[in-house]
Amino acid sequence: MLLPRRTSRISWTTLVLSAVTALVATAVSLLPPLGAPAAHAASTTSAGPNGQNRPAGPQSEPVYSYQNAIRESVWVDTRVDGDADGRTDRVAVDIVRPREPAQQGRRIPVIMDASPYYSCCGRGNESQTKTYDAAGNPVLFPLFYDNYFVPRGYATVLVDLAGTNRSDGCVDIGGRSDIQSAKAVVDWLNGRATGYTTRTGTRTARASWSNGATGMIGKSYDGTIAGGVAATGVKGLKTIVPIGAISSWYDYYFAKGAPLFDSGPDGLSDAVESDDAHARCAAVQQRLVDGAPRNGDWTGLWSARDYVPAAGKVRASVFAVHGAQDLNVRTKHLGQWWDALADAGVERKIWLSQTGHVDPFDFRREEWVRTLHRWFDHYLLGIDNGIEREPMADVERAPDQWSTDRVWPPSGTRQTTLRPRGGATAGVGVLGTERAEPGATESFTDDPALSEADWAAAIDTSTPGKAGFTTGPLERDLRLSGSGTVTVTATPSAGSAHLSAVLVDLGPATIRDYTAAGEGITTLDRRDCWGSGTAGDSGCFKETVADRRNVDYTVFSRGWADLGHFADDGKGRPLTPGTAYTITLDLAATDHVVPAGHRLGLIIAGTDAGLLEPPSTTPRLTLDLSRTSARLPLLGGAPKTAAAPSHPAAAPPLKGVRAPRRHTPLPAMPDHHITAGRPVNSR
């Protein structure tokens, strides 16, 4: 649903930042009120790989020594006793910061990534983990943030969530302990929490070098924590950059009652917890099991892990990045979070790629570093570089081909109702604006072995496992931008049933192969370097290129539901065979252009193999077409098409990407296998 936008309630900060910048036109200030001007000048160039420059605007420059930076660890008191050992938990905070500002009495801002993956699983395309020297001081920080931003006057702070790596406490999968792990560090950076020099000692550590201004960034679980902390309204958090992030943990594990994985949050907790935490966190683990029943019912556990209702508390600006074909953290998370932020008037920006669960560093590297640099410079250093006045959205239309929009979804986008009707062949129908005649039906039998790729390849053929409906060839491009829904009235033949709804662009295209191992990228052997390096942390990373595939169709949005959750009250019920039920499936947010000459297709079927766990039965479902419809976010209204399609019963199958791979519920982890319940990286 598209929500109305209000004038940003925090736009006054832009005016303040502009005024500050005007006073230091030739020298960038390292953040008032407590910091004196930094000894580096505003520049009109932006660094590319290996020191290349390109035009930009005023920005921070790499004038500080990375090799001589201060590398230290502190343990921050979370004020939560998650493991019930009688003392509040401390989380490990590893820090790299330039030495020179502290020597000169200057305070600096922080870029923070809070994660459960720093020891178990790794971060980034190369699965980097933290490393330490013999004294326990940090040596390798995963990703490029420290290499690039520390020389530019930022501190980089990596936080081990409670129950992971060197932290106390227990992992609770997006709950109070997880969120407080990071929020407490923001408080510490602002002088509101207590830090210690060791995990168990009494000597305190103050963040006297910090001016309190914090930006959180991270992919998947890490980005999820950034969103959850922002939703607390904590002061000092100026911006967040969530990449492929979860906005509601229920929606990670279920789609309106239909299970998306064969385990719940307890499985993820078990995978990321440290060995020490395993020994002390059995009670927390059991609460995750008890609070997340596999029947898909909504419980209090899920309410505590739903950040969308608290979007109105967000003080930080938000730069959201997501893969439109992310089948791990699906774009439903992006759509509902984005709409709630828009309704709350939060300053925001979005990148939407054609990839799956991939970091923008690995699909648009140079532009990502340049944009992220300008984003942090503006929101953390107060530089008036104009980034907040630039187009809100960047959308990838084809591999490495991007378009921009002033706002997103673009002005003129409206929810438009399209309806399925029967055709000359069973299961091969028509999609348009005209309602089907009362009593018109289509039927299919759930086949858990078939996926959306199988359905789409045979959309023009009568097959028993799906019902497909298509427009005629479009007379002009049709853009869908935002979140939609499909309402289905179906009569099952058994006591349980799952439903899937899929939107498909029927026509030739070159796309990123999002179902391949790289989810749209190919990793090369050569490397490029971003920022400074040391013997233990080079700042150099493997290059990537787009993994392209030529296809005859593109599935670009999908949604699922358990029909037993038809009452929409968060509870499932047994179905009565032969009784009609109506349910609305939420389609994942998208931004896709169906070109002129292509057709738009809607497929309704049962279990989506590789993405949805099958029900206990494999029913036959009969659709009441007169009570089935799709509300889609269309730019410019309903599509104009040529005559409705008429297809032979034995049309050849279309060519697309392979069937979706089964994803283990470990967001942001690379390909791996599970040994004794613990993840082992395969690369």
Characterise this structure.
With 683 residues, this protein is an alpha+beta fold. Helix content is 17%, strand content 31%. It has 13 helices and 35 strands. The strands form 7 sheets. Strands 19, 20, 21, 22, 23, 24, 25, 28, 29, 30, 31, 32 and 33 form a 13-stranded mixed β-sheet that branches. It has a 12-stranded mixed β-sheet with strand order 10-9-3-4-8-5-11-12-15-16-17-18, sandwiched between helices. Strands 1-2 form a two-stranded antiparallel ribbon. Strand 34 (672-675) and strand 35 form a beta hairpin. Helix 4 packs across helix 5 (221-230). The longest helix has 17 residues, at 365-381. The radius of gyration is 25 Å and the shape is globular.
